[in-house]
Design a protein that fits this description.
This protein is of the alpha+beta class and 497 residues long. The chain has helices at residues 8-21, 31-45, 48-58, 75-86, 95-101, 104-109, 159-167, 187-209, 222-235, 270-279, 285-293, 302-305, 318-322, 330-338, 365-375, 380-400, 403-411, 415-429, 440-447, 458-475, 479-482, 492-496, and strands at 129-131, 155-157, 173-175, 178-184, 218-219, 249-255, 262-268, 296-297, 312-313, 316-317, 448-450, 453-454. The termini are far apart.
Length: 497
């Protein structure tokens, strides 16, 4: 019955109708489902917080929000508007609807059965109306031809595309006075997100109907909500679903408000989606969820906040939000969340409390290895060399209780100080026929482009080396004893030289 169009707003609406129908594919939607959701939408947009949503964000100045239609004398006009935008698939003869609305501009919008009428811009099917921003978000106002196709105001749409557009807001996250609509090159992922949004929004409408609240909750951290949704959906998918291709995801945060129409676009490339999915799988899951768990911050629980008349859901996860800065900000992400370096970028920032000495249980080489491969495209040979060197140094530090070496490796900010610390350790280790603590080939592979010429990312390799050392020392219960050695000192680099 319905087909996806590759236009995010229409497709989110189609996914929402599919969720309402309780089926898994748009092709399974029936005419009866279309009639039922048209009735539901007419009721939602005609009163309460649904009407506020239409007026303030998505359909300003539409027939649902006209104060002049509120009285009994003009109630028929609101019913006619609902028939026009929601029930075009039912009404083959639009004359009674246009007559009830009693404005020539509505008659001029009709394209059904008009000779040489253009097809729907989204479905390619016969167009029904030529619509403007009161019926379709992010378009011009009625009669404005700037940027209009063929120099004509408005966009031709089919009756089902227009119904889908009106269903679309219920499949979005409603946040900060805007809608967050999500698309993906994997339609089942986009559907899963829209379905969960629909279920959540219907629950909010139910609370409002009971008098519990007077507005949709303001979800202040929409990026957190989006990753929550992503994790929820991919957790229900089998490994075989992503055997050959990992999807990407794009979110559009927009408002159609007449005073402040705008749109911001956020992307999660497929490597980020792959990283999130694989971190939540198998042996990595426990470590990853522990890291994620330490990144949550909220003023009150969501349950408490929903008791307010105008709820503001403050639940936020800094790690989830920083996923949107990947892969560009990969090194900072690694230092903050895996190496547990404190970062206080905002007021009451939970990341400012991070402390490797107290949180050594969160250091995970398995997560690090996954991150390097997915986010930084580091070659496997170099990753393996870093791991092997980290194991050797961790064992040496443990056996010799070498706090000074650990301190210099942790606090060194200059390459020469770092290298000299390793050279001094190698010199002390000589004798007895022991294998070199830091083999020449390994050192060159990890830290230098060639002999005596450091890599530009040597400090990244140092951080990775420390992650492996800390993990190994934690597993042998030695890190707690050596924690004081990690205290930074301004003279560390010069001492090492």
């Amino acid at each position: 019955m319905l087909e996806l169009t590759n236009h995010v707003l229409v497709d989110v609406g189609i996914h929402t109708i599919t969720a309402f129908a309780g089926v898994e594919s748009p092709s399974q939607v029936t005419p009866q489902h279309l009639d039922a959701i048209a009735d539901q939408l007419a009721q939602i947009y005609s009163s309460g917080i649904g009407r506020n949503l239409a007026q303030g964000i998505v359909f300003p100045n539409s027939g649902f929000t006209q104060a002049a239609f509120d009285g009994p004398k003009f109630a028929h006009k609101r019913r006619a508007w609902a028939d026009l935008v929601l029930r075009g698939h039912q009404h083959l003869d639009l004359e009674p609807i246009v007559r009830a609305l009693d404005k020539p501009e509505y008659r001029a919008m009709v394209l059904r059965d008009v000779a040489d009428a253009p097809p729907c811009a989204f479905t390619g099917k016969p167009a029904y109306l030529r619509v403007s921003r009161d019926m379709f978000p992010m378009l011009n106002g009625r009669g404005v031809i700037n940027f209009g196709g063929l120099g004509m105001a408005g966009v031709p749409v089919s009756d089902l595309a227009l119904l889908a557009i009106h269903a679309m807001p219920l499949g979005c996250v409603i946040s900060q006075g805007r809608l967050l609509a999500v698309e993906s090159d994997d339609p089942t992922l986009a559907f899963g997100i829209a379905r969960r949004n629909y279920e959540k929004n219907i629950a909010f409408l139910s609370l409002a109907a009971q008098g519990t609240m007077i507005g949709f909750p303001n979800i202040s951290s929409f990026k957190t909500r989006l990753i929550d949704l992503l994790v929820d959906v991919i957790d229900t998918r089998s490994d075989g679903d992503y055997e050959y291709r990992i999807p990407s995801l794009t979110a559009y945060h927009f408002s159609n408000s007449g005073q402040d129409a705008k749109m911001d676009i956020y992307s999660l490339p497929s490597p980020v989606v792959a990283f999130v999915r694989e971190a939540n799988r198998g042996s990595r899951r426990t470590a990853w969820q522990a890291i994620v768990g330490r990144a949550w911050q909220e003023e009150k629980s969501e349950q408490e906040e929903l008791q307010e008349e105008k709820p503001k859901i403050t639940r936020r996860n800094f790690l989830y939000e920083d996923l949107f800065s990947l892969p560009q900000n990969a090194r900072a992400f690694l230092r903050t969340y895996i190496l547990r370096q404190p970062l206080k970028a905002l007021k009451n920032d939970v990341r400012g409390t991070y402390d490797l000495r107290r949180e050594s249980d969160l250091v995970s080489w398995e997560i690090t290895d996954l991150f390097l491969r997915r986010m930084m495209n580091m070659e496997k040979a170099r990753i393996d060399k870093i791991r092997e060197l980290g194991d050797s140094l961790a064992e040496y530090i443990r056996q010799h209780d070498d706090r000074r070496l650990l301190k210099v490796l942790y606090n060194a900010t200059r390459y020469q100080a770092f290298r000299l610390a390793l050279l001094r350790t190698i010199a002390q280790q000589r004798g007895g026929g022991a294998e070199p603590l830091v083999p020449f080939d390994t050192y060159i592979k990890v830290f230098e482009e060639s002999e005596d010429f450091e890599r530009t990312d040597w400090n990244l390799a140092r951080d990775l080396l420390l992650i492996r050392i800390f993990e190994q020392l934690h597993h042998t219960h030695k890190l707690a004893e050596l924690a004081d050695a990690l205290e930074p000192e301004s003279t560390t680099d010069s001492d090492a030289e």
